[in-house]
Amino acid sequence: MLEILVLKVEDPGCFWVIIKGSGNFSDNEVDYQKLNSAMNDFYDHMCQDIEIKPLILEEGQVCVVYCQELKCWCRAIIKSIISSTDHYLAECFLVDFAKFIPVKSKNIRVAVESFMKLPYRAKKFRLYCTKPVTLHIDLCEDSAQIVPAKKWDSAAIQYFQSVLRAATQVEAKLCAVEEDAFEVYLYATIKNEKVCVNDDLVAKNFAYYVSPMQNKKRDSLEKPALSIKSTSLSNPAFTLWPMLWQGKDFQAMKNSHGLNFLAQSLPHSWCKDVAGERGPTAVMLDKAMKCDRDPLRDSPKRTCEAKQHCISLREVTRGVESSADWPTKRGITIYADPDIPAASALSQKPNEKPQRLAEKKDYDEKNVCVKLLQFLNPDPLRINGISDLQQLQRLTLGTQHPVMVFRNKIEPCLTIDKSPLSADLKKALQRKKFSGPSPTESYSWPPIARGCDVVVLSHSGNDPLLYLPPLLTILQIGGCYKSLPSRNGPLAVIVCPRWRKAQFIFELLGDYNMSSRPLHPVLLTIGLHKDEAKNMKLPRGCDVIITTPHSLLRLLTYQSLLFLRLCHLVLDEVEVLFSEANEQTFAILDNFRKNIEVEERESVPHQVIAVGVHWSRHIEHLVQEFLNDPYIVITAPEEAALSGSVQQVVHLCLECEKTSTLLQVLDFMPSQAQKTLIFTCSVAETEIVCKVVESNSIFCLKMHKELVFNLKSVLEQWKKKLSSGSHIVLASTDDCIPLLAITDATCVVHFSFPASPKVFGGRLYCMSDHFQSFTQQGSPVECGDKKTKSVLLLTERNASHAVGVLRYLERADAKIPSELYEFCAGVLEAKEDKKARRPLCKHLKAFGFCKDKRVCPDRHYVSTELDMPRKLSDQALPVYGYIQIIPSYISNATNYFGRIIDKHEDLYVTLKAEMNEYFKDSSNKVAVEKVENLGLYGLEEKTFFHRVQVLEMSQKEDAGGLGSILVTFLDEGRTGLVTKDQLLSLPESFRTLPPQAVEFIVCRVKPADGEMEWNPKVTRYIHHKIVGKLHDAKVVLALGNTVWIDPMVHVTKLPNLKTSIIDYNVRAEILSTGMGIDNSEHVQKLKLLCKGTDMPACDGGLGQTTVTSPEKEAAAASGAPQEEAQAPGKSSSSSSSMTDSAHHSPESESAPTRDASASATAPPHQKSLHPQIKWFQKEDVVILKIQIREVRDYRCKYFQDRVIFSASVGDKAYLADLELQANIVKDDCKCIIENHEPVITLTKEKKEPWRGLLKHKNPNVTFDFDHWEDCEEDSPIAKVAHSRSLWGKVAEVVKNSSSSSEDAGSESE
Hints:
Strand order of the largest sheet: 15-22-16-21-20-17-19-18
Distance between the termini: 76 Å
Strand content: 15-25%
Number of helices: 42
Shape: globular
Structural class: alpha+beta
């Protein structure tokens, strides 16, 4: 489908359009702008002294005219000429604007060929097989009927114009090319509905359909004067390009010189473009045409000086004097105009004009083909040596995609019809508009369909269609599996490195599994729990499993009998599997090899398919140990070079030292015959290299675009047999690689850095004859001295590519200079500096690390400017302490968006109530007239109103002008698509409150199996558990709008028992799914990033938090007066202390208290830190474990109802001042070091259970559940624990305070 813009409508049988988009027929507006600029400069300035006016004006003549309306020179065709007293007036059609304008003869200029190279911008369209009708009234018979008509009715034209005016998008499907017009089916999108205009006109009795044959007959009858048959111009080249290149008589061209070329080249290039596939000939023609397009991109001065493209002003002057020579001038076609004051024109005889016209016609007939050849090949045709035509043909043959097949020969399937696929699968691919097998697919499908072992490496190696169609075909042949045991189990297993890729292939199988024998594919992801693998049951008839290596190995461990029927093992992205799950992948291969060695399986397929992008040494081991006579298909030449053991060498040098480094690289006295290719980027560089090499007595050839005529001689010299110790060097540019078609070079020197990996691979392919096979790689002789070598010169100009070079050299096991590592480190640092405005890496935030910083586009360091905690109201986000949150949007298992709850003054609740009250009045619901990007608006959703910000607006709007708009909900964090009519004007009073949505990340947990994304099963489970619920959390870090919390728990209060119970810990719930593992260094790594910055998040140290203020609500619950509960200047908080019971570790954090406001989490600077303390009691003593290690200079003071502990660890000081629940015998208390940690033993004054340790709650003091059973029978906490069965597993019990607390800051000081 072509997207078009209608310029002018005459009737449905003739309307002019511009083709938009990026297809083969689309117009490049930039080129037309440059063309107009060049034309204006040329005709306004360059031709002021000598006006290039035509000597003859004829109807149908192509010229350049000045348009008064557009104020510029335009290409035009003369339609008619009117004579007047002082000048001629010509009616001209502007071919780029579809306008008819009258032009005086003095404003008409000759059309220079350089300005006629671009196609006409305005294309003539007409409706395909759609003809007009009219109402015929027979007065005699008193009847009326609709009959065919020769011209369109005015009502039909008006309706056709109204449809196009109302359409928001107009598309055309090309059906035929007749004479100078495209015949199309026209589709107009009106009010979000696509209508076929052809059908619409027929349905409304404005037109009728005719068959294609009738259509041609009617055209021939309607226009009998045309001498050119419609079939002659069926080639779109003649419709798209100006008449200057078409010639007057296409039939005459068939007898002229160059017909064979036209017959061979045009159908293979242009016709493929019509079908939507760009052939190799067209690609090479684009390259050949670059020099012809240069005049449009260069200045007018350089345009006129171009020897091969434009005529000089001297030639123009001489041409005026001798009009008979005009047609022979290169690059311009001019015929005399009577009003030019030239001597030859004024003195011509009457009979000279017909003679000149006859000469002109004869010239057109004989040389139109030559002009077309000049257009196809801009360089002048040469008589001696190899012609440009032959060069172009060789160039075309050399552009075939290089495919390297090792071990076995493969006959490729070049079309979908000849492919070894089932008929149903071919139909399914065609329904999906599959364009046909790519070069890689054409070589990989046949051996896979035959059940052979195959290794495929390609730039498109991540595409499952490289192996799925032939694999599905062979699986549908049930007869080859009859000898297998009749039990449940898969026939094929597809192993993917990530669950997301496995899910993609599973969905793809659902699209293409349309056969008579359903395969019942299963997506398998198994967690760490043994029971999950043991209890896994496959559905009956499951023939295909898509899984990851870790999941498959767990299933193999417990249910190996399930895979007795396995015949096909597919390794998708094989290089990633070997790099990230090497042990698991080889264990799977070992198991598969053992299964297929059973005698009963000799008659069934046993196939391994490995598909990937990059070669690695593990693939070599796979081929040698696990594959049986495999087919190896590599379509990436740079990867074939790695598999062929090409020695990779890199030299770092300055740009000014490249030539001297080149001489050091070259072997002047080789032991064997050597052929060295030196690749350069320009003609001048090639000449320099050749001179430098020859100056050192080495025979050097050269090849570039200006020496194409010498190609035959160069190839003869190169192909000569060399004696031992001889050395031949060829310096060439990259554009000559397909022309040379060299494959026997022994050394390639990259004097200029390759522009792309494809160019780099093309260079290495020149040594493909010497790529070593796997048997040769194993021999000690070949391993000791590699025959082929690639030398890369890396300079400061190529700094941006240094990291990619390093990665390639690492995969090649090459010797890498230390300077390259240092250079790459500097490059990476510079790249990281360029990411200053990028957001912090999501993987770094979620897990504390990023797997590949070299390719990650986001920032990996803390920026003081961007990461300063933002403000929710008057105060910034809490950087540590305890908060209450409500998650409203769950991004994944550990990443949520929600709000921080402030019990005392929740500004968002107030705002929400005011917004609901305001918008209840329908008069306040004012729709937005103009939507601005990043603008703030209101949005009604059910019965609630939200604040939203516009993130992105769609470019295409529907018929109503609404379109879809991407918005983010400022106070919830989620995004969504809305329409313009849903947005409401938001008063300024509702905009002042900053967005309340905060990003929360649960710490110390990450996906299992090395995944970087959470499995959707975990995300769904956490979503249903936590969304919309109030949770308590402890803040460990805050940057920007992100708060890291650990732990995050849901607490239930038991008011009758004056206790609180933890329903669940989010981190523990994630771990319980078996899809997550502990990530103990998460927070530590994040805080290390903050070191050296001025972030407030770092004030509290890296491992401990300071004491927060006690709670007002806790004091109120215990009956203490509120005035005594809250110290001056401190905000209060509520709830009991708690601990994370999921995984006890030395650094386990205490659970949070319910903080009433964010301000309570930011106490003043402390001189000492409060240590984490765990306690438990026995009948006569209370034992406190201080959770700090490597203690020195510790002290412990005992009082009757108080104990003070102080210590230092490194440069940190710790202080704990504990006011006890009951009295102790201070003389019997002691403090000792056990397992590198202080342990305090307090002797009770009365041998009775304590209800708690402290009078006032301290968040850093928690109960030690490891000793729960020691005190369960005597402690009143046991009663609470038994009541916990109502909610499930007891996480912990929180002690209730009986009175208000003192100032927490004074305790830690």
